[in-house]
Structure formats: structure tokens, C-alpha cells
TrEMBL record:
Domain GAF: 64-147
Domain of life: Bacteria
Protein name: GAF domain-containing protein
Pfam families membership: GAF
Organism: Eiseniibacteriota bacterium
InterPro entries cross-referenced by the UniProt entry: GAF, GAF-like_dom_sf
Taxonomy of the source species: Bacteria, Candidatus Eiseniibacteriota
């Protein structure tokens, strides 16, 4: 297992070396996935101007949910309501978009700077209530780091 400080240090190093944006996102997903053995599917969905979330890098089983409209499912609801969502048991959520029959809990943390939402980190677990406060804080730290990356990219005119 690695810790959040190690993930962020690796991302900082890659950024300073001029690593491509997409490669940094892939490294972030890999680092996040390694934070906790309860993380069974980890990915980033980027928000595009047409109000559609598009799947970026991920680790885990393939999903049919490559595009998700704002307001649809847990991921789309998080953007529509402009808040992070921690679902202890997805079987109790009426608009849950099932990626795997094994998924029992889901965590969605927005990658945002102020009111601007760039993307989100989506993590699924096969365990009920897998995302305790410690897990949420760890993922939020990485999301905040990524928000600064998106923000600097947008300032030079390369927003998704």
C-alpha cells in the first residue's frame, strides 16, 4: 500500500518533468487505486461543455458507461448537485448505473476549483460502506491536486 503523500509527490514529480497531461491523469488513477484494497474500480470522468461526463483513464473491469449525462446515475447527480457523493450501498439507489454486479458502494469526488467542475474521481468497491472518512479525505486530497492541474491547463487554453 502507498499513502496519499506518496501519490501527490509522484504527481508533483511528473508535472515538474513536463509529463503529458493524460499520463499524469493515468498516474493519478493508478496511485488512487493503490491507496486502499477496497478500491476495486477507479477512474476519472471528465466534464465536457455539452454536459456529458466522458470516461478517461481507469483501472478495473471495462464499463459500458463511457458517456454519462449530467443528472444521470451517481456520477451525473454529483455534478448536477455540485457535491461529492458517498453511497454506502448502491442497491438502495434508484438511479444507480450498474457497472458491475459486484459493486456494493461508490464514491464520487469532484475535481473542481471554486464553482468550476473539471472532472470527477469515481471509485467502486465490492464491499458495502467501503468509503470511510479517511478514504474520502485521501481521495479529496488527490482531487484537489488534480484541480490545480486542470486549472493551469485551462489558463493556457487546453481545457477538455
Amino acid at each position: 500500500m502507498i499513502n496519499t503523500d506518496e501519490v501527490i509527490a509522484d504527481l508533483d514529480k511528473r508535472r515538474k518533468l513536463g509529463t503529458a497531461f493524460e499520463d499524469i491523469l493515468q498516474a493519478a488513477v493508478h496511485g488512487l487505486h493503490e491507496l486502499d484494497e477496497r478500491f476495486h474500480w477507479t477512474g476519472i470522468y471528465e466534464l465536457f461543455p455539452d454536459n456529458v461526463l466522458r470516461l478517461g483513464p481507469f483501472i478495473g473491469a471495462p464499463t459500458d458507461h463511457v458517456f454519462i449525462g449530467v443528472g444521470r446515475g451517481v456520477c451525473g447527480t454529483a455534478v448536477a448537485e455540485r457535491r461529492n457523493i458517498n453511497v454506502p450501498d448502491v442497491r438502495l439507489v434508484s438511479n444507480y448505473l450498474a457497472c458491475s454486479t459486484e459493486t456494493r458502494s461508490e464514491l464520487v469526488i469532484l475535481i473542481r476549483r471554486g464553482e468550476k467542475i473539471y472532472a470527477q474521481i469515481d471509485i467502486d468497491s465490492h464491499q458495502v460502506a467501503a468509503f470511510d472518512e479517511g478514504a474520502v479525505v485521501q481521495v479529496q486530497r488527490v482531487a484537489d491536486w488534480l484541480a490545480s492541474l486542470y486549472d493551469s491547463r485551462e489558463r493556457i487554453g487546453r481545457a477538455p
